[in-house]
Each structure stands twice: as C-alpha cells, then as structure tokens.
Amino acid sequence: MRSAVRLLRARRTGIEGEASMLLYLSQFSDQFAALNLFRYQTFRAGGAVITALLVAFIFGPAIIRWLKVKQGKGQPIRSDGPQSHLITKQGTPTMGGMMILLGIVFATLLWADLTNRYVWTALGVTLSYGLIGFVDDYLKVTKRSSGGMRGRIKLIAEVAIAVTAAIVVSRVSAPELSQSLAVPFLKDTLINLGLLYFPFVAFVMVGASNAVNLTDGLDGLAIVPVIIAASVFALISYLIGNTVFSGYLQVHYVAGAGELAIFCAAMIGAGLGFLWFNAPPAMVFMGDTGSLAMGGALGSVAVVTKHEIVLAIVGGLFVLETVSVIVQVVSFKLTGKRVFRMAPLHHHYEEKGWAESTIVVRFWIIAMILAIAGLSTLKLR
Fold it and tell me: pTM (2 decimals)?
C-alpha cells in the first residue's frame, strides 16, 4: 500500500517519463528485446560513466593544447603560497574544468531522462557555477593575477543560482518534502524549515562549491574526493528514488531522484577522464571552472535527495579544508597568530615537508573513510 501511494505521488509530480536520446529506444523493446535495457537506471548510469570518460579522453588533448596556446604562461601561481609551486606548477594551463563539463553534459543529455526536472536543475547549477568559475579563471589569466573575480560579485551570483534552484526543487518535490530537512540516523524524520529552507539551500550549494575550490590545490587532490562523493550520491539517488529500496531502508522517498544517479555517473566518468591528465605531474588544472562546478553539482544532488547533512559527512575532507581556512583567518585577526603554517590544510603539510604525493594519497584515504561513514547513515536508523 505504501509503495502504491508513493508511485501515485511520483506520477502526480510529473517527473517520471521516457524522453531522452537513448531512453526513447526502450519504446521499441517489443520488436527488439535488448532495447529494454535502456529502461534501467543502472544500465544507463554505466553508459554515462563510459560516455563521459570517452569524451574526456577524446577531447582532452585538444582542449589542453588550445588552453596552452591561449594562456601562454598558464595559471598564475599565488606568491603567498608554497614557494615550490613557483617552480613545479609554473606554466601549467588552467580551465581544464571545461573537459569535465563537456563530459557531464554530453553523457547526461545522452543517457538521462530529459523530462526529469531534477536532472535539469542539477545540470543548470553545474553549468552556472562552471560559468562563474570560467569568468574567474579568465580574469586571472588575462590579468596575470591570482585575484580573479571580485569576491562579493562571485558570492552574489552563486547565492542567486542556489536560491533559484531551491525554488525549482521546492515546487517539484512532494509537499511534505518541499521545504524540509531530513535528519540522518532518524527514521523518516523531516524538519520543516519554512522560508529558512531557501537560505539553507544557498548555504549548502555555495558552501560545497567553495569547499571543493579550496581543496583544489595539488595535482589530483580535489578530483578524486569529488569522484568518491559522486559515487556515494549516485547510490543514494538510486535508492532514494526507488520505492522498494527506500521503503526497506526506511528513508524518505523522492520521486524522480533516481535519475540523478545517471547525472552522478556522468560526474564520475568525466572526473576519471580529467584525472588521466591531472595526475602528477598535472598537464592541466581544473581551475575554478571545474572546482566551483563540481561542488555545486554535489550540493544540488544533496538538496534534491534531502541528504544535505550527509554531504557534510561524505565531503568531510572539503569541510576540513574550509574550516582550516576559517580558523586561520579568525585566529590571525584576533590574536595575530596562525594556527597552521599555511592554509588550506594541504599547504600546512607541504610546509611541514610532506611530499605532495603523500599528502594527496592520504587525503584520498580520508575521503574514502568519510564516504563509508556517510553511507552508513542509510542503514543506521
């Protein structure tokens, strides 16, 4: 009975459909039984991973060559950062996030259900944040300065995009979910935030976006935790959007959220493709074009699935990096002393003499442990 009610509710929301480039083929499964595979989200998620990966592999070298020609000296290196970066990172082009965005867009449009408004919301947030990052990177490269876009303008743009996405999600979601916050470890517990829901969503998306941006300071450091987090939320999206699994796990059901598994899968494939070129020594940096977009993407999926708090656990590494910067700034302003040798946190360990590869791999391990902790919230109720 509970499953039937959920299914009827899903149909009333109008976010279940069968319109996408490849999902459409499933309508001909009567003539060709194999085409029925395109109905399954798991199959299409696998297809999205491979597609996004191939897009990055095929177009990546050309994008890198084009960026090198256009940027000349590459990404400006911060003069107040680790001195070793002035030697090891000099001349490396930035804006490699365009490669990631290309893979995500192509794979999502090819494999996801394009009648699903959650998919368009996540894609819209990702591209919008990517555009902000692109402008920021462009200003840095053209002015040969690490300053980029004015912080206030960037923040206003990010908040405006997040609030717009919050309005869309609120209208599409079922009434009991539209402005609610789910609490991990508590069965079907929802807190109605009312109008506070919109600034809360803005905080989640803007916070996630800038947290990934702060983490992106070493070769491969940010993209692997993003891939790990996207993998976790691909699974969460699939389970939350399935009446049987959500009922078994005793978590709230979000009609249509399962399609975000395909979007997350596209993130995974595009991220892996980018990592091929970003592995030490990096041939290209993702820049704000990629980091702001990836953080925004994770934030948007967390908001749709009502797992905003879980994102703070799964993306705990990004939270640690952000907190290290906040602590450093507050401590210096109040006492004139620094808690860390340098912030964000990965620079602190560089200054302590850790090898870059050691820092990166150990941070990856931390990201994996936190991802497992985040997944445990699905069953510990």
Answer: 0.89
Q: Which residues pair with 181 in a beta bridge?
A: 191
Enter the tokens of residue 59: 């177009």
SS3 181: strand
Return the exposure string of 242-265: e unless at least 16 CB atoms fall within 10 Å of the residue's CB, then b.
bbebbeebebbbbbbbbbbbbbbb
Q: What are phi and psi of 191, to 5 degrees?
A: -110, 120
Query: Using one digit for the tens of pLDDT, what is the confidence trace for 39-96?
Result: 889 999 999 999 999 999 999 999 999 998 888 776 665 555 554 554 456 678 889 9
**Residues in CB range of 198: below 8 A, 6 or more apart:** 163, 166, 167, 170
The answer to whether the bond into 93 is cis (omega within 30° of 0) is no
Rg of the chain, C-alpha, whole Å: 21
| Token output for 265 | 């899968």
Please list, in sequence order, all residues whose beta carbon lies within 8 angstroms of the beta carbon of residue 78, skipping any fewer than 6 positions away: 85, 146
- What is the CB neighbour count within 10 angstroms for residue 348? 18
Residue-range domain boundaries for the chain: 2-376
CA distances from 163 to 43, 127, 195, 196 (A): 33, 15, 11, 11
